[in-house]
Specification:
single chain; alpha+beta; DNA Primase, Chain A; 2 domains; four-stranded antiparallel β-sheet; 6 helices
Length: about 190
């Protein structure tokens, strides 16, 4: 095995010294990011409400003008030209639909993306020995083929499994999905 240089040893010593501080800073940054996302969501919702009201008014005015043009017995192509080119109604209708959908997504707590589960936290809290039995070399018997000797290796750093016989590779969530025939949501609920 290759020996480490003095520089590499210094780096490893420095890394070990500041590892805990780094973890604490990382937690602070994550908390600040969650707060910032919540503030941004509120600002975005306020902007969406204002934009939706404005677009609704523009579209309504365009169709009121269309009604006036109908009373004057203007041809269809002329009315559509007024609505599309001068009033930009089609674009406003698309924006209105898009903003209304986005407002629904942000305001509905069930659909809300910012409330998503932190998968990495769930993976970090998993006790691998409660799911599979590992030997001293961190190998286990692969459930995806007939295996007489352990051929599946657990890699704690990447939190993944790899079978050297059948070639299966994945994290613990995909392992449970494959082994137990569960959906992603069912596995997450099981691990929570």
């Amino acid at each position: 095995m290759k020996e480490l240089s003095t520089r590499q040893m210094d780096f490893l010593g420095w890394f070990e010294k500041y590892k805990e501080e780094y973890k604490l800073e990382e937690i602070k940054v994550r908390d600040n990011l969650k707060e910032w996302r919540k503030e941004m969501k509120d600002i975005r919702l306020e902007w969406l409400n204002t934009s939706i009201l404005y677009l609704e008014k523009q579209i309504k005015n365009a169709y009121l003008n269309d009604g006036e043009l109908r009373k004057q017995h203007k041809p269809y192509w002329f009315r559509m030209t007024i609505l599309e080119a001068l009033r930009n109604t089609h674009h406003n209708e698309m924006l209105f639909t898009k903003y209304t959908h986005e407002r629904l997504m942000l305001s509905n707590p069930i659909i809300n993306v910012s409330n998503k589960i932190d998968i990495q936290t769930i993976k970090d809290n998993i006790n691998i020995n409660s799911i599979i039995t590992l030997n001293k070399a961190e190998f286990c018997i692969c459930p995806f083929h007939i295996d007489k000797t352990p051929s599946m290796k657990w890699y704690p750093k990447t939190q993944s499994l790899h079978c050297f016989s059948c070639g299966w590779h994945g994290d613990i969530i995909s392992f449970l999905m494959e082994r137990d025939g569960l959906t992603f949501k069912e596995v997450i609920n099981k691990l929570k």
